[in-house]
Amino acid sequence: MLAKVLSSAVLGIDAYVVEVEVDITMGLPAFATVGLPDGAVRESKDRVKSAIKNSGYRFPPHRITVNLAPADRKKEGAGFDLPMAVGILAATGLVNREKLERYLLIGELSLDGKVKPTRGALPMALAARNDGFAGIIVPEGNSRESAVVQGVNVLAASHLAQVVEFFNDTCELPPTTVSIQDLFSRDARYDIDFNEVKGQEHVKRALEISAAGGHNILMVGPPGSGKTMLAQRLPTILPGLTFEEALETTKVYSIMGLMGERAVVATRPFRSPHHTISDAGLIGGGQVPKPGEVSLAHNGVLFLDEMPEFRKNVLEVLRQPMEDGKVTIARAATSITYPSRFMAVAA
Q1: Cα 299 from Cα 251, distance rounded (Å)
Q2: Is 192 among the domain residues?
Q3: In angstroms, rounded to a whole number, what is the distance separating the alpha carbons of residues 81 and 108?
Q4: Which of the residues 108, 157, 174, 193 could staple to 116 if both were Cys, CB 3.0 to 4.6 A apart?
């Protein structure tokens, strides 16, 4: 009994399609996951088993093998729970396979079968649109973020049983839609404003010139003179984000799980890392590469408060991202490029 469900994984700030192949054969009960899964993916077998049982379905007491293709790329995160569960039910004949190849599925499962939000929903929705899928099934918590992508049906699911009934044509999942114009008009607001600064005319003039030309700026002054306050208000006088800029910035925040309740990042980011930050924390890195502060400040402002306190090697690694507007992290298996076009403000 073999079934194939389509899902997606993130590489850099973009996503690619992953084929979740489920094979159920006779033998002693076992659950094996292959295709370079990380710890969260390997642990999904226990979540999937409990979710299927607690949703009212029978978990097959046989040998189950799950392959995540392409098998030469590292798969991470809990977003494969939902496609694995649907694949197991499809292999046992409990899910109609006719519509499976037309939809991407992503989502983490709780033990009671509820579908929980996952990281990277926006780039995955873009991958679904670019590869010509009819739609993508996402957790309810990711639906508004994914619906920012035009040209693909975004279907929100709150429970595994809903997804099963959708593929069996006994339940409809209504598409989620959002108005980009309304999102920008509501969310493109700052809690602080540049006009709150009284006095400091020469500094304000320098910041206005810096904002107009996209120039980096260094502020020097005694403690308490307002350097940090002025830097925090600099994004409020920068031009508003275009939709393309907002989409690119949102992709970075989406894969880091920093979206919260927002559907899109509609304001210029402001990042102020502590002076004890490492070079990997600043430009990105790690065993499984992740974006750093320079990428989280993409299309916004990176503020280096107490710049002399930063370690020399940390300041040195800023040179290439500032010059190129991107940072490339090379590992033995792959090379990943993150965007890092920002205004640097130091004090």
Answers
A1: 12
A2: yes
A3: 5
A4: 108
Asked, for residue 292, whether it belongs to a domain, the answer is: yes
Residue 137 in domain: yes
According to DSSP, the β-strands at 63-69 and 30-34 are parallel
Cα separation of 261 and 99, whole Å? 31
Tell me the per-residue pLDDT of 153-168, one tens digit each, with 9 for 90 and over: 999 999 999 999 999 9
This prediction's pTM? 0.92
Sign of CA dihedral 64, 65, 68, 74: positive
Is 80:69 a contact under the CB 8 Å cutoff? no
What tens digit of pLDDT does each residue of 131-143 get? 999 999 999 999 9
Q: State which of 167, 200, 217 marks the end of a domain.
A: 167
Per-residue DSSP letters for 166-188?
HHTTSS--PBP---HHHHHHHH-
Assess whether 190 and 143 both reside in one domain.
no
Residue ranges making up the domain that contains 309: 182-346
- Alpha-carbon distance of 288 to 305, in angstroms, equals 28
Residue 276 lies in a domain: yes
pLDDT bracket for residue 180 (50, 70, 90) = confident
Residue 247 φ then ψ, to 5°: -65, -45
